[in-house]
């Protein structure tokens, strides 16, 4: 399967990609302009050997790239084939097939809509939700999937023309300004901001306050474990203490994992986890082929808010019991030397090296990870009191 996002150069890249695939004898199903989660659906729907989504996700308009998935929508990463692809590409190895491959065009909108809506409970109460599509694929997909529901959508930046009103990265706080303002002005139940290819999102409560993705993971863990007790929930190691606490409290098994969708998806599959959440805004579902989906996350939050007797801020209030720094980035020359220095300095703590170094004391903890692409160390700190954090 091959699909693309709304960027102005995506059609040309898609055409070149399909041409190259056909030249090797590969048959291609072209599913058009879609969000990345629809690619995961298409791979499983058609039973293909994999898929490529032409997108640059949350990056600025001038960027583009390929998100490559294998059989069953398993991610193709550095350790699972990406290095081989890099070698073939840089060596300019041209493999010509004995026959030219074919191209079939398919519109999966209705099938995908039915897939997403099966996660919604019937007879939801009417809610008003502000949705900032970030001029990305959510602007096309949200109306197609949710347009017939009783839900009132306050639409922001739904135009998909490759130009962005703000950077399509909801993790940057300033990019949430429009959805926060709309929630407060229109008196919405909550607000959502999607990234460019709609596999990630951030949410704000009915007061316009940002909801940390670890808090959302904790809230959703309770929701899933209420339906499926004793299940496993995967969470990223930067998450608040509240996440494993809530998983255990609700009778589940917490599985702590490295940062990154490839690691999270593998952990989901290995443990048959019902759900997984990451601080980056990726949320993963067993019943969605162990992959992430912004629209399915929205569906589950609609279920939670519709069934609650209090607003979402009140559901989250008991979970806001610790104080965190958010992710802080520090430029350093020798990343490994600084990491070794931290290990020596905090040698009396409980240490682990699952991803970078995590230092745990009874009242506070931190994780420090080196960036894979920049001379940066990424630091997350959490404490039981605000004074201790400061």
From TrEMBL:
Keywords: Isomerase, Magnesium, Metal-binding, Phosphoprotein. Residues 327-387 form the Alpha-D-phosphohexomutase C-terminal domain. The keyword Magnesium applies. One of its GO terms (biological process) is carbohydrate metabolic process. Belongs to the phosphohexose mutase family. Pfam families: PGM_PMM_I, PGM_PMM_II, PGM_PMM_III, PGM_PMM_IV. InterPro entries: A-D-PHexomutase_a/b/a-I, A-D-PHexomutase_a/b/a-I/II/III, A-D-PHexomutase_a/b/a-II, A-D-PHexomutase_a/b/a-III, A-D-PHexomutase_C, A-D-PHexomutase_C_sf, A-D-PHexomutase_CS, Alpha-D-phosphohexomutase_SF. Its cofactor is Mg(2+). The keyword Isomerase applies. This is Phosphomannomutase/phosphoglucomutase. It comes from marine sediment metagenome. Gene3D superfamilies: Alpha-D-Glucose-1,6-Bisphosphate, subunit A, domain 3, Alpha-D-phosphohexomutase, C-terminal domain. GO terms for molecular function: intramolecular phosphotransferase activity; magnesium ion binding. Transmembrane segments: none annotated. Residues 1-89, 111-208, 215-319 form the Alpha-D-phosphohexomutase alpha/beta/alpha domain.
């Amino acid at each position: 399967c091959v699909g693309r996002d709304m960027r102005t150069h995506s059609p040309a890249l898609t055409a070149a990609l399909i041409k190259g695939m056909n030249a090797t004898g590969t048959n291609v199903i072209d599913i058009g302009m879609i969000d990345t989660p629809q690619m995961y659906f298409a791979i499983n729907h058609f039973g293909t050997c994999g898929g490529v989504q032409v997108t640059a996700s949350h990056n600025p308009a001038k960027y583009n790239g390929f998100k490559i998935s294998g059989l069953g929508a398993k991610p193709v990463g550095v350790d699972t084939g990406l290095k081989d692809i890099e070698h073939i590409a840089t060596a300019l190895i041209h493999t010509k097939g004995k026959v030219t491959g074919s191209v079939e065009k398919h519109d999966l909108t209705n099938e995908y809509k039915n897939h997403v809506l099966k996660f919604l409970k019937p007879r939801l109460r009417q809610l008003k939700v502000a949705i900032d599509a970030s001029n990305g694929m959510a602007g096309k997909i949200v109306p197609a999937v949710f347009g017939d529901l009783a839900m009132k959508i306050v639409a922001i930046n739904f135009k998909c023309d490759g130009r962005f009103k703000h950077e399509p990265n909801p993790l940057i706080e300033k990019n949430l300004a429009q959805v926060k303002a709309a929630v407060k002005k229109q008196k919405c139940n909550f607000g959502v901001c999607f990234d460019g290819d709609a596999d990630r999102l951030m949410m704000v409560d009915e007061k316009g306050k940002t909801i940390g993705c670890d808090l959302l993971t904790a809230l959703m863990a309770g929701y899933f474990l209420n339906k499926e007790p004793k299940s496993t929930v995967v969470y990223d190691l930067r998450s608040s203490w509240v996440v494993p606490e809530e998983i255990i409290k609700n009778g589940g098994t917490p599985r702590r994992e490295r940062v990154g969708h490839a690691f999270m998806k593998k952990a989901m599959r290995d443990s048959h986890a019902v759900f997984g959440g990451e601080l980056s805004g990726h949320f993963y579902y067993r019943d969605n082929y162990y992959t992430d989906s912004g629209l399915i996350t929205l569906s589950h939050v609609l279920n939670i808010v519709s069934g609650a007797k209090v607003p979402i801020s009140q559901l989250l209030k008991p979970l806001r019991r610790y104080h965190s720094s958010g992710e802080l980035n520090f430029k350093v020359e020798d990343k490994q030397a600084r990491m070794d220095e931290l290990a020596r300095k905090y040698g009396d703590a409980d240490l682990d090296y699952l991803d970078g170094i995590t230092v745990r004391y009874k009242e506070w903890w931190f994780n420090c990870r080196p960036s894979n692409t920049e001379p940066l160390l990424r630091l997350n700190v959490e404490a039981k009191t605000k004074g201790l954090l400061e």
